[in-house]
Amino acid sequence: MLSIARQSISAVPRRQLAGAALGVRSLVTIKATPAEEQAILVAQRKNRPSSPHLQIYQPQLTWILSSFHRITGVGLAAGFYAVTCTYAFTSLAGIPFDTATLVSVVAGLPVAAKVGLKAAASFPFAFHVANGVRHLVWDFGKELTLKGVYRTGYVVLGFTALVGTYLTFL
User: For residue 26, is it within any domain?
Assistant: First the structure.
């Protein structure tokens, strides 16, 4: 275990006491093994306050749209990757799976399932495209004020509602 000898105030030079009064801390080093260093670090981390989490922040359009832009990008990429890999796997495995098979499977679904699948694809697609254009506008240095950021955010939401609905029921 580590032990640090404490000096009495009378043994501390006046120069160090003056520095302590000004808020300057003197540095004390000790030799420790890596295991002891780790134990000290763990003990220090236990005394740190917890970081605030998202629940303490008021939801704002800016971070909500940013989060959904990332989520829709990952979701669209995963869907594209899944369809591409399915086509590749079935062609390598000799399983008959082509566009005609896919069309016949979708044609056999109930209308509610078709609309649901189209909505699940069209709304994220419309949102991601619109928010991507919004980011390109920002890259040109336009609409970077707080008012402009919110204005473009509401345009993205309106575009998503209109185009997503159009693509769903097309």
Answer: yes
